[in-house]
Design goal:
Blueprint lengths: L2 H4 L10 H5 L3 H4 L2 E4 L2 E4 L5 H18 L3 E5 L3 E4 L4 E3 L3 E5 L13 E8 L4 H15 L3 E6 L7 E8 L4 E9 L1 E3 L7 E3 L4
Parallel strand pairs: 7-8
Antiparallel strand pairs: 1-2, 3-6, 4-5, 6-7, 8-9, 9-10, 11-12
Length: 188
């Protein structure tokens, strides 16, 4: 059995922004669109989802009234070819909560929790895409064997649209850019 036989036709055709917007929320869950093509994301583990939720809750509390932090919704990086990413955590301007799609100019920070199978995408591909879209901060959270997450932070250089390395944290993030926050990630 080939992939073409097992997957619906819409997964093998380039998708436009207009076409994607006509899809149901159920169709959009668990996928991203990269250069107009559907990329299926396997379901994340409970450990992965828990870590993302803890981080989002802490960032939401620290962000104040101007910013919201949420998990798992599309950020439209470009329209042609369509590229939608669904970061694990997104910090975005509170006054854009009802705007769809969420655009890079609405976003302050994206965070990705690295899982088996997403290492290359989270460490290389998404870093480049988020930087080129102009998102100011990127955090990559590694799930260490010790159970204490390792958080790599990156800060955008607006002149080159590339990220420079920021600090690396384990367990607790203190006063990290872009706003003062202390997040006790501890044993996950």
């Amino acid at each position: 059995m080939t992939a073409e036989m097992g997957a619906p036709a819409w997964m093998h055709e380039q998708i436009t922004a207009e076409g994607y917007e006509s899809w149901s929320e159920e169709q959009c869950a668990g996928i991203e669109i990269v250069d107009g093509m559907v990329v299926v994301n396997p379901n994340a583990s409970r450990r992965h989802n828990r870590l993302a939720r803890i981080l989002a809750n802490a960032l939401d509390t620290a962000a104040g009234p101007e910013w919201n932090a949420d998990t798992h919704f599309d950020v439209r990086l470009q329209d042609v070819p369509l590229t939608n990413r669904r970061p694990d955590v997104v910090v975005y301007r509170a006054d854009t909560i009802d705007l769809t799609p969420t655009r890079p100019e609405h976003v302050l920070l994206v965070a990705e929790v690295v899982s088996p199978g997403s290492e290359t995408t989270d460490r290389i591909v998404k870093v480049d895409q988020y930087a080129k879209a102009g998102i100011g901060f990127y955090w990559r959270i590694e799930q260490a064997a010790t159970g204490v997450p390792l958080v790599h932070t990156y800060v955008l250089d607006p002149a080159t649209l590339t990220y420079r390395d920021g600090d690396v944290f384990t367990g607790v993030l203190k006063a990290a850019a872009p706003f003062p926050v202390e997040i006790g990630l501890g044993q996950i």
